[in-house]
Write a structure and sequence with these properties.
Elements: H1 3-164, H2 174-177, E1 195-196, E2 205-206
Antiparallel strand pairs: 1-2
Length: 215
Amino acid sequence: MNSKNLFPGICLLLLIISEIFLFSANHQKSMAQAQLREAQEQVTDLQSQLDEATNSGAYAQSTEMGRLRGENQDLPRLRKQIQQLQADNEALKQQLGKTRQTAQQQQQQLDQIQAESEQAAEDQQAQAQAAAQVAAERAASQRTTCIANLRLIYAAKQAWALEKNKTDADTPTEQDLLPYIKGGAFPVCPSGGVYTIGAVGQAPSCSIPGHILSQ
């Protein structure tokens, strides 16, 4: 092939290749610029977030400092309140101790009163039993004396009937029987009963229940 015809083809080929490289370079440049813009936008966003975080942290720090200053201002008052509470607690403990001591003393007094009451009840019961026993013994003694008086009256009636020739249906009076009773006095029931002389054939009686002369 003639070299004159080959040179223009080579030049055309080189031109095409140059265009291709130029297009590729421009495309890469565009991509790099887009990435750069994106990176700048991210940097801007990060800077904005950093500024916001810094401002928020500064506000929070300022708020916290204000709160701490307020707490520091209230600290003496709180200490005073704590001291007052401690003093009140100590006073309550002392009062509680006194109350417990008083309660123990009252319980001891109550126990003593209870014991004395029980002892008094036992003594009263014993006295009542003793009095009942004495009354029973006195009643038995009076009953025995009354029955002895009824026997004496009955014997006097028999002596009067024998001497005066009286029958069992005849009834003497106290005056009729006095000569036949030792001491010349008509017997009296020690319990305050009233005697009924009755007929010669009957046993005399007393108005007190249980004072009975058995024949």
